[in-house]
Write a structure and sequence with these properties.
By secondary structure, the protein is mainly alpha-helical. Helix content is 77%, strand content 0%. The longest helix is centred in the N-terminal third of the chain and has 31 residues, at 2-32.
Length: 404
Amino acid sequence: MSRFYLFIFLLIASQAEAQEVSALAVADSLYAVGNYSAAIENYERIPSKEESVYLKLARAHQAKGTLDDALINYVKAASSTDEVIAMNEYGKLLITKGKFKEADSVFTKLISVYKTNPEFYYQRGRASENMPSDIKINASDSTQERTTTLFPYLKDYQKAVALDSTHQKALSELATFYLKRKDFRMVEKLAFKALESYPTNVEIIGTLAQSYYYKGWNEETITWFEKLLELGQSTQFIHEKLGNAYFKDRMYEKSIEQYLEALDFSPEDWYLHSILNKLYNYTEDVDKAEMHGLAALEFKDLPLSDEQYTLARTYELKKDWKNAMKYVNFSLKENPKNKNAEYTKVIVADNYYEDRRAVLKLYEDFIKKYSDSEYAKYDPVLRLARERRDKLTREIFMADDEEE
C-alpha cells in the first residue's frame, strides 16, 4: 500500500514539474519574440521559482521598461550560481537608473573577486564618473597624479584598457575625456589604438574628427568626417562641422551640400540659414542667398545686425539697391560700429543715389572716421574709399566746368 502512495506522489510531482517546465518554455518563447508582458505573467505563474527564473523576470522587466521591478528581481537572482551574471546586469541597470553609488558598490564587490575582468572596471568607471566627490589635492602631486585624483574614474577606464587593449568603450571614454581638455595628442593616440582592432568604430572616429576640427587641421577633419558619412552616420553636428571644414578650404558647393543636409534636421535654425546666405553669396546664386537670408531674419530673435548685413550684401550682388540700402540701414541701426556695414552703405549709395555730392560726402565721412586708426595706412578698404573719393571729386569738378 505504501508503494502505491509513493507512486501517486511521484506521479503528481512529475506532472507539477512538467507543468512548471511547460510554463517556463512558454515564457521563454514569449520573451524571445518581444512579448514581455505575457512572458512576465508566465514567469510569475511558476510556483517555486529558482534564481534563474528571477533572472529571466529581471531581464523581461528591463526589456519592458519597468526598471524598478527589474531591480527587485535582479537582487533575488543574485544569490544563485548565476550570481556574477545577475550582479553585472544589476549594476548596469543601477547606472541606467542613476543610482551611481549603489552601482559603484556592486562593481567594487565584483572586482574584489574578479580582479582581471576589464568590463567590471569599465562599469565602475561609468558609475564613479557620475558620482559627486569631495576631493583634496596635494600641491606636491604631479600633473598626472592631480588628474587621476580629480577624476578617479580615469583609473578604472585605464585599468580596463590595461587588461584589454581592445576595450572600445573604455578607450572611447578616455578619448572623450582628453578631447574635453583639448589634449589632442592623447585623443589621437587613444583613437588610433582603438581603430587598430575596430576600424569602423563610429564613436571613436567621431571623437578623432572633432579632435582635428578643434585643432584646426582641416584636411584631416574632412577625411574623418567624410569617413563617418561613408559609414552611414548622419547628424546635424556632422554635417555642420564638415560643411565648415569645406568652407575653410573654399569648397563652397560641397559646403552648401552639407549645410543643406544639416538644415533637414532643423529647418528653422536661423544660424544655418545665415551660413547658407553667405555661401550662396560666394557662389553668386543670389536668389537662394536671398531666400535663406530672409529665413534667417524670420527665425532669429534679436539682435539681427549680422544677418541684415549679409542680406544687404545679397541684394548688392543682385543690384537691388533699394533693398540693399534698406537692410544695411537696419544693420547699422542695431550695430552702428560695424565698419563693413558702413562701407557697404557707401557702396550701395554710390549706385543708388543720383546726387553725386551726397555720395562724395559719405566717402569723405567714412575716410575721416577711420583714417586715425592704428593700421589705417594698411587698410585696403580705406585705400578703395580714397580712390573712389578722388574719382568722384574729378567727375563733379568736370561736370561743374561743363555747366559753366
